[in-house]
Design goal:
about 90 residues, mainly alpha
Length: about 90
């Protein structure tokens, strides 16, 4: 089955935009809990660190993560489709 790399890339980018937005809201409403979760995820301690929010930072992160997901999704499907051609 051949997949559409462009559509998959757009879907991945949209999904990451939603995840980024939800993550930002979680940090805004529960900053200490999200800091503890982040410390657990990276196996580190961020004593003295604090969240720094700005609208431009939100937009920059939204764009960066979405673009990265779009490119990664496109690449995965492109490689998948090439492998499917050679498997036949």
């Amino acid at each position: 089955m051949k997949l559409d790399a462009s559509k998959f890339g757009l879907a991945a980018g949209a999904a990451f935009a939603v995840v980024w937005s939800i993550c930002t809201l979680l940090v805004l409403f529960w900053p200490s809990s999200m800091m503890a979760l982040t410390e657990s995820m990276v196996h580190g301690k961020f004593s003295g660190f604090e969240w720094n929010f700005s609208f431009s930072g939100f937009v920059t992160g939204l764009f960066g993560w979405s673009l990265g997901a779009m490119i990664t999704g496109w690449l995965i499907v492109t490689l998948y489709n090439k492998q499917m051609k050679t498997a036949k």
